[in-house]
Amino acid sequence: GERRPYGDRPQGERRPYGDRPQGGRPFDKDKDSQDRPIRSQSDRTRRPSGGGADIPAPMVQKTTKKDRPDIKKEKSDRLDRGLSRKEGGNKGNQRSMMSLEKQMPRKPHKKQEKPVVEEPKINVMELEPGSKVVNVPITVAGLAEQIQCSTSQIIMCLMKMGVMANINHNLDEDTVVLLGAELGINIVVDKVEEESPEEGLETFEDKPEDLKPRPPIVTVMGHVDHGKTSLLDAIRKTNVTASESGGITQHIGASEVYSNGQKIVFLDTPGHEAFTAMRARGAFVTDVAVLVVAADDSVKPQTVEAISHAKAAGVPIVVAINKIDKPAANPDRVKQDLMQHNILVEEYGGDTIAVPVSAKAGTGIDELLEMILMQAEMLELKANPNRLAMGTVIEARLDKNRGPVATLLVSNGTLQSGMSVVAGTSAGRIRVMTNFRGDAIKKAGPGTAVEILGLSEVPQAGDTFNALKDDKLAREIAEHRAAKQREEVLARNASVTLEQLFSQLKEGETKDLNLIIKADVQGSVGALTQSLEKLQNENVRVRILHTGVGTVNESDITLASTAGAIIIGFNVRPSSQISAMAEREGVEIRTYQVIYEILDDIEAAMKGMLDPLFKEVILGKAEVRNTFKVPGVGTIAGAYVIEGKVARNAQIRLLRDGIVIHQGKISSLKRFKDDAKEVLQGFECGLGIENYNDLKEGDIVEAFKMEEVERK
Questions:
Q1: At 288, which CATH number?
Q2: Whose C-alpha in 189, 199, 337, 458 is 20 to 30 A from the C-alpha of 588?
Q3: What pLDDT shows up at residue 620?
Q4: Would you say 498 and 163 are in contact if contact means Cβ atoms under 8 Å apart?
Q5: Residue-wise pLDDT tens digits, 512-557
Q6: What letter does residue 111 receive in the DSSP assignment?
Q7: What is d(CA 572, CA 560) in angstroms, rounded to the nearest whole number?
Q8: Could you tell me the pLDDT band of residue 605, with boundaries at 50, 70 and 90?
């Protein structure tokens, strides 16, 4: 059963676990046809053991250093022979090339010199011993870590200040300093000034040779129902009055008209007093103000407000005396009333132009346009059309199909479709640009009102906008502005809490009326917010938790349900699904189309939130002339009514020598042995006081009741 791999050759001893030949060694012939035994290390060192004594052990020949083969030279020769062979394939060549590369002398590595980095110069603040440096704004948890204090201590201090906070609450500079004083730690606030990306906006001054004449921008202002929209209707030969709720313009519109080949841009500002902020914004972006005054109604409060806004903006005024076709029209009275507000017309020696017009009949319109162009010519209005555009956001809204829509008024430069624009905290690339008629246009020069699509969010009406060539820069500017805005809101909220909440709490417990406002356009949101904030008083505080453009959505319902808020919708209506969700969550949604109805309802709601206000009404007085002790009942006073009446359900004060010694309720009132509801002046009665028996002769029982009075 033994293996005989080599036929008749002599075999050595069989060794287990060995795969080498037993006994003799095979021979291999190299290229030179020389027989070379293949020797292994085991052959040189191992000896047979056991029964292999008859087989001679391999001889180990001792060699000297001179007799030893040169291994390196042998490897080199074998390598040369391997390269000269044609057989062996690509793998042999690859291995040979790798071996050659390893033997090639390598170039020494050149030591690279490290670049010299200048360390930034840091202004080290000189601190007093024990002071802590804090970067603001910072959260409660961050402040606790920096000043090595527990968060519970900081939250307790904030509660003493009237601020309910958690560990993620942001703290402004003033609050951090106050907390340091409360904790006995000298806190040094460190503000890191970072470079603003707004430095990338073009701020160069236009050269005089680059300036070209631009059309005037005119704002129509005046009292409600004095005919501003009707006058614009007559000017631009369109009819938009019927589409407004109750004939009141609810948001700013822009339109262009031509007179004698010259363009005039008109802005229609709403006339209701709730839109004071919008009217003021319109005045600051305009060149000429047209003050509309009804000839049969003369100067009214909103007329005076419009005059103040125009004067504050330094805008020249052209008076349009409207409704001169009415029988009660009195233009002279209007001119005289304007004098009381420092508006002198040219007829009275002033420099204000007054034009009698009739929007209904269409008379005086051409003369009014001529006067506007004359004022614009005196102003020498110019702009540079060969630069990136800049201007003002006139109006903005959220369209459910098209997304954020903004009306821009270009005051300088040229706006082109496809440009990047940053407006307030919103940025984007203009996808579509249309004029006031709705026609798509590619360019808009100075003095042009356009509507654009492509912004990331709805900007605020009144924000300035800038056109940019770089999309990335536009986004960075918008993000930077948004971050700054959040910091300002946090700081403003904190300062209000610290400075005003204490005084309100001392006077009585304040109540919050939480509101969420949704409207169709951004201008209405701003005006409504400002009007509602004016309604708050020392007892009820109006808190506007969230405002937005567009219809009521699920997130609004969730927020209102969590905070117990009322949702106010102006010119928007919720869907049936949202209404059902609001009903399930117990959230009230109120929708309106006229703004002063909102103000009336909210004012009534504020009064309903307050605790009832009572006043004391004295009913009468009775003198105690005798006392009786009745077992199981207590002390009963025999009294004589000396003033007014004493009623069974009345409250009483017991006076002894003019001092109130007890206040309580009447437990029983009898006339002889019969129970009585009341006893009038001049009659005797017996009365008992609830849980009180210390009655004496001569005491005065004063009866009174508390009546609820209406809050004003």
A1: 3.40.50.300
A2: 458
A3: 93
A4: yes
A5: 778 899 988 887 888 888 888 877 766 777 888 888 888 898 878 8
A6: P
A7: 17
A8: confident
Rg (alpha carbons) of the chain, rounded to whole number: 48
Is residue 228 domain-shared with residue 330, that is, in the same domain? yes
CATH number at residue 455: 2.40.30.10
Q: Which residue has the higher pLDDT, 412 or 187?
A: 412
Torsion of CA 589, 592, 597, 598, to 10 degrees: 40
Our count of domains for the chain comes to 5
Element spanning 548, H or E: strand 540-549
Q: Final residue of a domain: which of 383, 408, 443? A: 383
pLDDT of residue 700: 93
**Tokens representing 389?**
């555009």
pLDDT band at residue 225, thresholds of 50, 70 and 90? confident
Report whether 325 contacts 359 (CB < 8 A): no
DSSP single-letter state for residue 537: -
DSSP state of 611: P
Helices (H), 521-617: 522-533, 554-563, 576-585, 595-609
Lowest mean pLDDT among 87-91, 591-595, 686-690: 87-91
Q: What residues pair up with 216 in beta bridges, in sequence order?
A: none
Q: Are 624 and 679 in contact (CB under 8 A)?
A: no
* Lowest-pLDDT choice from 263-277, 348-362, 476-490, 555-569: 263-277
543: containing domain: 508-609
**Is 94 part of any domain?**
no
Pick the more confident residue, 330 or 306.
330
- DSSP state, residue 289: E
Sequence-distant (6+) residues with CB within 8 A of 309 are 221, 279, 280, 283
In a domain, 471, yes or no: yes
Nearest to 158 by CA among 136, 182, 188: 182
Q: Both 562 and 643 in a single domain?
A: no
Q: Of 505 and 342, which is predicted with more confidence? A: 342
User: In the 8-state DSSP scheme, what is residue 210?
Assistant: G
- For 660-668, the CB contacts below 8 A with 24+ separation are 661/694, 662/689, 662/692, 662/694, 664/689, 664/690, 664/691, 664/692, 665/689, 665/690, 666/690, 666/703, 667/691, 668/633, 668/636
Residue 217 · residue 238 · CB < 8 Å = no
Q: Which spans in 564-701 are helix H?
A: 576-585, 595-609
Q: Where are the alpha helices (DSSP H) in 285-381?
A: 301-312, 331-339, 365-379
Q: Which residue has the tokens 């904790």?
A: 183
Residue 495: per-residue pLDDT: 38
Which is nearest to 218 in space by CA: 312, 283, 304?
Answer: 283
Query: What single DSSP character describes residue 243?
Result: G
Q: What are the structure tokens assigned to 418, written together?
A: 């496809």
